[in-house]
Predict the 3D structure of the following.
Amino acid sequence: MAVQHNDSRLDRMFFPKSVAVVGASDVPAKWGNLILTSILGWKFGGRVFPVNPNKDTILGLKSYPSLRDIPEEVDLAVFTIPARFVPEGLRDCAAKGIKAAVIISSGFRETGSEGAGLEREIVAAAKEGGILFIGPNTMGIASAHHFFECLPSPTAPGPGGLAVVSQSGNIGLQIIKWIAHKQIGLAVYAGTGNESMLKAGDIMRYLGSLDEVRAIAMYIEGIDDGRTFGETAKEVTLKKPVIAIKTGRSQAGSKAAQSHTGSMAGSFATYSAMFRQSGVIQVTTPTDLINVSAAATHLPIPRSNRVGIMTMGGGWGIIAADECEDSGLVLPALPESMIRDLDPVLPEYWNRRNPIDVVGENDASLYLRVIGALARWSEVDSVIALGIVGRSRYVEDFISAQERLDGKLYSRELKLAILKDQVRTEERIISGVAALQKETGKPIIVVGLTEGGLRLADTSDGRVVCLSTPEEAVSIVAHLAWYGKYLKEARVR
């Protein structure tokens, strides 16, 4: 079923003013309780109507015997009832004039032939009633700018520019948790489940039309109509990046996908070709999905695969250079003009090549001078800066060791002053990187000296992506550079 991006029922689904939870419960851990708690637990400003014929009130709200008994208009119905009761529930939706639904309930196509028959029945009931639904067998949806979280695990991720579409509820929830923990910022989440009505491609098309969405991350197990998906992706990727992880590369993974949501995994090579032709950035791990999606949401897209690297030590520079070559990135040789410009500020024995090794100096002005030279250089379109933040953790460890020793070598005031000074230095570096990124329109990715994975640093000039390893930074640049190349070639065509 092809759904247009401007279908008003999609707005009612993701941005409802009123929601009915069919199967609402006050029993902890039951789906009707989890979903209702999640909706009520954030800052959703709309009306919420529990539906349960055996309860007068649930979680402090008046409960209604059926959807037909609700005296007010309802934008969205959420079903958490057993599968066999869903067809009648959809007929109640039609009678009430409800045009959008989320079917959390499982027990459909994923369970076998009997469930498949029931799934055909709910599709027929929905079409007859003019209802658009997502699911069944989904863990739900969310729209962070609307403070609406229809999920079994309340997370309340901050509003932002990244939208997520997932054919797996568990993976989808984990991605939302990561987005919240790393403060990436969520726009919309859609768990598509069995996709008996709304397909992943339909949701992608809709998200492509929303101004608050800057990038779209997708977890895909299978697509019924690859041609339609690819045509939709070609339209969307010209406006904003789409990053996808396609599972089922192996025979075992393919079989697992089919038993999970009833998806037909198909040939992995065929999917990869379709992604390349339609501009979808393909990743192979959840970590890359989060990292690349976060970067695509907050960073400029590079115009080429040429990279400039600055490193605080030779080892990391060598690792990054190896990773760049393996990933198809190019490290142009430094021009004589840049060497002459940097000679006065770097030690006499600096390496005079890309990656630029600043030989262990701890000077914020020097770092920004070198990063600025690379970012303003016309021969590169991305910059990776290695080892320039994170030294404050080393200072903390040194202070702890000294205090364990005797605590008398330095006064507490001096130790705190040293730490505070290092923190200020790193804040100055990050602010300077953000300013250069804004000035040049080129992504500048920072790799720190500590563990922790992706971190987004906020500044008045935008956000800076900070990572823990050179290979993570190179992976992000390689994927974004591929997308930049696709955009350039697509616009020429």
